[in-house]
Amino acid sequence: MKRLIDQLRDNHQLSPDGYWTLLTMHHPDDVEYLMLQAREVAQRQFGKSIYLRGLIELTNVCRNDCLYCGIRRGNTHVTRYTLTREQVIESCAQGYRIGFRTFVLQGGEWGEERSAWIAEIITEIRQRWPDCAITLSLGEHPRDTYALWRNAGADRYLLRHETHNERHYSLLHPQGMTIRHRLQCLDWLKELDYQVGTGIMVGSPFQSLKSLVEDIQYLIEFKPHMIGIGPFIPQHDTPFARFPAGSVEMTARLYAILRLALPHALIPSTTAMATLSPTGRLHGILAGANVVMPNLSPVDNREKYALYDNKAALGAESAQGVQLLSDELATIGYKIDWSRGDHPDKN
Ligand code: SAH
Question: Which of 128, 157, 295, 340 gives the lowest tally of CB atoms within 10 Å of its CB?
Fold first, then answer.
C-alpha cells in the first residue's frame, strides 16, 4: 500500500484501480501514511500556514432546485434575504480590518437581470480594496456574465461540479440541469482567466465509489486552482432530509489523495467538516488542506443561509472568531497566513 501512495506522490496520478484501492483501504497504518505524505507535501508548498477567505453570503434567493440544498427554490420554509450593497461593503470593511485579503461572494443563483448589480458591487470592492482578491460563487451563468464580472475585477470563481457521473448528477439536480453544462461553465471560467475552484460533496445520496473515482480523475485532468470538497449533510426541508451525512474520514481521505495528485492546489478544510465534528477542521488540515473560509456575513443573516442543518457559522467558523481559529490551529503547530493566498502558478 505504501508503494501505491508513494507512486501517487511521485507521479501525481494512478490508474482508476489505484484510486479505488486508496478509497477502500482500511488498515489505520495505511491511512495514516497517506495523511502523513499529504501533510508533508502541503507543508513543502505552504509551510504550516493556512490561508483565510472571508465568506459573504450575498443572498439565499435561488432560481434552482438542487435536491440537496436547503435554499432550493422549492423550500418554502426559508425566509429569503439579499444583502444590500452597503451591507456587502460593510462586511468587506470589517473583514479588511480583521486582516482578510480575500472576499468570497457566495449565494443562490439569480437570473441575468441582476448581473449588472453584482458587477457594480465587484467594481466597488475592487476600487476600495485593490490589494484584495475577489472570489465569486454564484452558480451557472452565460459566458458573457462571467466575462462581465471578470472585467469588473473578480479574480476567482468557485463552482463545484458536485459529481462527474451523468446519471448521479441527474439524481441530485432538477430536470434541465446537466453535468455537461456545468463542465462547460467551468471551461468558460478557465478561458476567462479566473482562478477556478471545483469539487464535490462526499456521501451525497446515490454516490458510489465508482463515481468518486471518476471525480478524482476529472479533478486531476481539469487541474482546478482550488478544490472544494465537503461531506453531504441533510437539510430537514429538502427531499434528501432522511439520507445520512457523508463522512469526515472519507472527505479527509479525498483531501489527501488530491493533495498528492495536485500539490499546488488550494484545498479548504470546509465548513461542513467543522459542522460534523468539533475536530473536523483540524482533521482536514492534517490531511493536506491549506485554507479555511470563516463566515463574514452580517450575523443576523447567517442562520437564513442554511444549506444544511446545524451549519457552523459562529466561533472559529466566524470571521470575528479568528482568535479562536488561530488558537485551534496552534494546537497542531499551524498558524494563519494573512496574505491573499493566490495559487502558486499565479504569482
Ligand atoms: N449557488 C452556488 C453556491 C452554492 S452553495 C452554486 O450553485 O455554486 C456552495 C456548495 O454548498 C454547493 O456547491 C454544494 O456542494 C454545497 N452544499 C449545498 N447543500 C449541501 C448540503 N446539504 N450538504 C453539504 N454541502 C452542501
Answer: 128
346 within some domain? no
In what helix (H) or strand (E) does residue 209 lie, and over which residues does it extend? helix 209-222
Any atom of ligand 1 within 6 Å of the Cβ of 162: yes
Full pLDDT tens readout for the chain, 347 residues: 999 999 999 999 999 999 999 999 999 999 999 999 999 999 999 999 999 999 999 999 999 999 999 999 999 999 999 999 999 999 999 999 999 999 999 999 999 999 999 999 999 999 999 999 999 999 999 999 999 999 999 999 999 999 999 999 999 999 999 999 999 999 999 999 999 999 999 999 999 999 999 999 999 999 999 999 999 999 999 999 999 999 999 999 999 999 999 999 999 999 999 999 999 999 999 999 999 999 999 999 999 999 999 999 988 889 889 999 999 999 999 999 999 999 988 75
- The residue type at 3: R
- Residue 49 to residue 195: CA distance in whole angstroms: 20
Type and span of the H or E element at 253: helix 248-261
Residue closest to 57 by CA, chosen among 125, 138, 111? 138
Range of the domain at 27: 2-339
The answer to whether 108 touches 71, Cβ cutoff 8 Å, is yes
SS3 of residue 312 by DSSP: coil
The model carries a pTM of 0.97
Q: Which atom of ligand 1 is nearest to the CA of 138?
A: 2
Total domains present in the chain = 1
Asked if residues 161 and 172 have their Cβ atoms less than 8 Å apart, the reply is: no
| Nearest CA, atom 10, ligand 1 | 160
Q: Does some domain include residue 87?
A: yes
The residue whose C-alpha atom lies closest to atom 7 belonging to ligand 1 is 139
**For residue 191, is it within any domain?**
yes
Is the shortest distance between the CB of 103 and ligand 1 below 6 Å?
no
- Residue 283 belongs to domain with CATH number: 3.20.20.70
CB atoms within 10 A of CB 171: 13
